[in-house]
Amino acid sequence: LPRLVREFVAQNNTSQIKHVIQILSQEFALSQHPHSRKGGLIGLAACSIALGKDSGLYLKELIEPVLTCFNDADSRLRYYACEALYNIVKVARGSVLPHFNVLFDGLSKLAADPDPNVKSGSELLDRLLKDIVTESNQFDLVGFIPLLRERIYSNNQYARQFIISWILVLESVPDINLLDYLPEILDGLFQILGDNSKEIRKMCEVALGEFLKEIKKNPSSVKFAEMANILVIHCQAADDLIQLTAMCWMREFIQLAGRVMLPYSSGILTAVLPCLSYDDRKKNIKEVANVCNQSLMKLVIPEDDEMDEAKQSMTLPAEPTSEESLSKPEAASSGESSPPHRRRGELDITALKQPLSFPCSSERIQVTLNLDGIVQVLDCHLHDTSIGMMTRIAVLKWLYHLYIKTPRKMFRHTDSLFPILLRTLSDESDEVILKDLEVLAEIASSPAGQTEGHGPSDGSDVRPGPVELHVPARAGQLSSSGTKGLECSPSTPTMNSYFYKFMINLLKRFSSERKLLETRGAFIIRQLCLLLNAENIFHSMADILLREEDLKFASTMVHTLNTILLTSSELFQLRNQLKDLKTPESRNLFCCLYRSWCHNPVTTVSLCFLTQNYKHAYDLIQKFGDLEVTVDFLTEVDKLVQLIECPIFTYLRLQLLDVKNNPYLIKALYGLLMLLPQSSAFQLLSHRLQCVPNPELMQTADGTKPSAGFKRASASNIDYTELLQHFEKVQNKRLEARHQRAGRAEQLDRRVVL
C-alpha cells in the first residue's frame, strides 16, 4: 500500500490517492467486521506515512474515519484508532491545526476511557498534539474557545485533568492570549477546583494562580466587569478552597479595577459580609474578606452623592455589561470608616486617591453607585438574626460610611432603615450598639436630613410646630475634644428633624423594653452624649417626658437620666453649666429639666442640689410630708444620701463650712435626715451634719435676706413659685394615678374571689 501511494504521489495522481483513502475508509475502517476495521486503520496510517508532507492535502479524509473508531465498543480497536491517528498527526504536524477542534473533542473522550492501554495511547497522542500547538503560531484560539467552554463542565475526573492540562499549555504559549477569553472559562475552572481528586484540585489551583499573575501584570487587558458576578457566586461556595480562591480574586479585582466594580457592590457585599464572622477554622477566608470589604468601602466617594445623575456618574473606561448583581444575602471584618467625630464637609483624601479603572474596551459606560442595591443588602443582613457580631458591625460601618459620603442619597432610605436601627439597640454586643449609635447620631445630626422631602414619615412621632428644640445656641460651645458642639445645637440647621424623632422612638423603646432600659439605658444615653450634644439630648428627653402618660415609666426614666447627669464623666461640662446657672441658656435648661424631673420627687431635690438651689430644695422637702412615703421613695432618698458623699458633690459638702451663707442647704439636709428611718444612710448623713461648725448659727428668721455672699444673683430670672406649683401638680397627678391603679387591682381581686 505505501509503495502504491508513493507511485501515485510521484505521478501527482490525486484522484487515485483519494480513491485509495476512500476504499480504506468506507470498505475497511467503517466496516461492520472488526478485523476489517483494524486493517482499515492500519492502512490509513500507512497511507499517511507514504504521503509524507502531502498528507496535509488529505487530512479530512484521513482523520474522520479514525475519529469515528474512537467510539467503537472494542477497546482493542479504539487503541488501533489512537495509534493510527498518532501516525497521521506525526507526519502532518502543523497541518492538523485546522482540524484541532475535532481532534481535541476525540481526545477528551479517550482521556476518560476505562481501558488503560487506550488511555496510555491517548496520552502519547495528547503530548504530540501539545508539542505541535506550542511550536506553532497559527493556532485558532477563537474557534477553540466554544469547545473548551463546553468541555470544561465535564464531571469526569480524567476529562477534567485533560482540560486543565491543555489550559496550562495554552497559557504558557506567548503567542496565545488566553486571558482575553478568561470570562468564558472562569466559572468552569472554579467548578473543577472543587473536584474530589487532590491532584486535579492542585492543577486547577496552579492554572488559576497563573491567570491571576497575568491579570496583575496586564490589568489593562482584563475584562473585570464580565467576571465580577462569577466571583460573587463562588465567594459564597461551600467548599473552602473555592471560596478562599474566589475571595482572593475578588480582592485583586477591587484593588486593580477600582470603581469599575461599584455596580456589583451589592453582590460583593452579599458574598463578603457573612465571611467576616467566620471563626479561626476559616481565618484565611475571613482575613481576605475583610480586605475586600475595606477596599470596596474606599471606592465610595462624596461625588457619588450628586443629585444630578449626569454629574453623579463618573465616566470611566469599562467593558459594557449589565449592572445586575446578587442582592439576596446568605445567613451568615469590619471595614474602615470615617471617624465618628470627623468634621462636616471634610473629604476623605484616601478615598479620592483610589485608582479609578483600567481601559477594558473601546466603549465607555458610566460607572455609578448602585446605592439601592447596597442598602437592600445591608438592611437584609441587619434583619437576619443568625448573622455573627462582626458582620453586624461591618453592616453598621457601611451605613455610617454611606451617610458620611452620600448623605443626600442615603436619606431617601432613612425611613425604611430607622426601625431596624432602633431594634439593633437591643443587640447583645456592646460593639454593635456603639456602631448603631454612631449611625443614628449621624442621621440625627446630618444637614442632609433637613432637605425637603426627607423628613420623618411617621407624622405621629413628630412634635407639633417647628421641629427644632428651642434652646438658644451658646457661643464657644465647640469643645476641644472634637465632639459636636455649637453645630449640633437644636437651633442650628444641622440638628435635623430626625433628631427629635430619634429621641421619641428611643424613649418608646425604653418604655416597651424595660430590660433594655435597666441593662443598657445608661450606656446608650452616655454614648449619645459623646456623639451628639448632651444639652440637646437632655433638653429633648425632658420635653418628651413632660407629656409622658405612663407616669411610672416617666419616674424611672427621670431617675435614670438624673443618675447619668450626676455621675457620668461625659456630662462634666453640662454639670458645670447647671451648677452656676449664670447664663440664660443654663437657666432655660434647668427649668426644662425641672418640670420633667418632677415625675420623681427625690431626683427633683438632687437637681436643686446640683444647681445650688438650696432654698427651693428645702421648700420641696417640706412638701414631702404631703406625699405617700413608700419603700421605693425611701430607697431613692437613701441613694441620694449616698450620692451626696460622692466626689460629684464635693462643692456641696465644702459649702457646709459656710453656715451663714448656706442655711437652707443645711436645713434641706436635715429635712432628708428626718425623712429617713434609722438606717445606715441616716447614720451617714447624721455624721456628716455633726461636722458642720457652729450649729447655732443655723437659726435664721424667715424674713432675713441672705448676705451679699449668698449665691443667686440671678434668682429673679427663675419663677420658683411657679416651679413649686408645677411640682405639687405633678405629685397630685401621680397620687391620683396610684390610687387608680390600686382601685383597679382591688376590683380584679374581687373578681378573682367571685
TrEMBL record:
The keyword Lipid biosynthesis does not apply. Pfam families: Vac14_Fab1_bd, Vac14_Fig4_bd. Keywords: Endoplasmic reticulum, Endosome, Membrane, Microsome, Repeat. Residues 308-344, 447-466 are annotated as: Disordered. GO terms for cellular component: endosome membrane; PAS complex. InterPro entries: ARM-like (IPR011989), ARM-type_fold (IPR016024), Vac14 (IPR026825), VAC14_Fig4p-bd (IPR021841). SUPFAM superfamilies: ARM repeat. Belongs to the VAC14 family. Forms pentamers. Component of the PI(3,5)P2 regulatory complex/PAS complex, at least composed of PIKFYVE, FIG4 and VAC14. VAC14 nucleates the assembly of the complex and serves as a scaffold by pentamerizing into a star-shaped structure, which can bind a single copy each of PIKFYVE and FIG4 and coordinates their activities. Interacts with NOS1. This is Protein VAC14 homolog. It comes from Charadrius vociferus (Killdeer).
